[in-house]
Amino acid sequence: MSAGGGGLGMSGHRQRSGTVKRRRWGGLRQQWKLLGVFEIDQQHEFYSLTCMMKEGLAAAIQNNINNSATNELSDDDYRLEVTQIHKDFTMETFAGPVFASLRSSSGMTEQEYQQSLCSESCYLQFISNSKSKADFFLTNDKRFFLKTQNKREIQFLLTNLKIYMEHLRKFPHSLLVKFLGVHRIKIPHRSKKYFIVMQSVFYPGDRISARYDIKGCEVSRWTEPAPEGSQIIVVLKDLNFEGQSVILDQQRHWLVRQVEIDTHFLQRLNVLDYSLLLGYQPLHQDERHQSISFATLIIRTKRSVNPGGSRVHAGMAAVPGAVLEEDSSLNGSETGCSYLAPSQAAVASCGGGSISQTGPEPSVPSGDATELPDFRAQNRRLLPNLKNPLHVIDGPEQRYFIGIIDIFTVYSFRKRLEHLWKSLRHPGRSFSTVSPQTYCLRLCHWVQDHSK
Predict the structure, then answer these.
(1) What is the DSSP letter of 275?
(2) Among 3, 144, 255, 298, which is least packed by CB within 10 angstroms?
């Protein structure tokens, strides 16, 4: 009798535990829906496709792990196509060694990349207000985006992949979106599906209070904000940002120059209609108004690339932004950096690409060459304790997430006709479809006018 009672008790406990878990999971799913993000569960139209993506990516990344190369990239690596056959589909991976090299230079291992993309947790569908017909998926940890692309866009990326990689090598803190993989899925009796994997600009985004998509123009550049108190994530646009500024103080010079460099690069590719993504969140009190010495910047930079690479004093909490002003263990061998006096910052070299001095001197679009040391002195990541914060800049009061996305629109004959039509329809107003040179200069001016 007592045994039976105990069994009923255990059964009741399991039922209650299961109920609690379902409620908790149901609450999380409801929260995602409120935020414009939907879990791709078994009832979702993209469930089958995303399961194939996961399976294909797991095998493709494992192939990189098993065949890791240490040599420099060759022309064959850029042309490489690897086909892997699965039960219900075939997946092709383009230029795998090239993107593996980029992931490595960004501080992530193949294992953690695989874990994020191929975990048992479902992908999330991100509902975008983009005019394109692309589908957007987000890994469950919200670290990586997967976006479907058409064949022309994929060919454009692969054709220009070598100069894209060279640009990132010269400017490791480029604001250009980081492409981490290009793939194609073939499903019998269905059309081929190309997709890319990108690093999310808004990661980690748990505390981001506002997000903007900036093109530097005014036509169709207003989005109705979410009602006050709403949890819905709305990506706002240029006209929503009017009256505000990105306040960076000393970091402003770096941002302005990096936007110039990146947009001039895109101008050379003859593209337009790209967006500057901008998000921000308030700094914690311990992160504000710190006395930042050059040695401190080196420590923060090192932590931003490899959080486990620098020690924290025993008994001190590793809170975000808390950086020890003096550490007797700091030396060249301990940090992997040879840090010098502030006046020598321009020639310092540090592991992780945070202060780049390798390769030929990068060309600077404008300004006197004597400004280059100051530019380099500001070209640092300032978010410690989190990996791959490639798009993070700290100002005195706010932490900014900034990146340039959607770089596939070429100024074709069709776009020239669209420019003519919009000129007639919107006389005297600025719109997105303009020449790459005009687009580049206009976005640079927007950043200059909206930063302090």
Answers:
(1) E
(2) 3
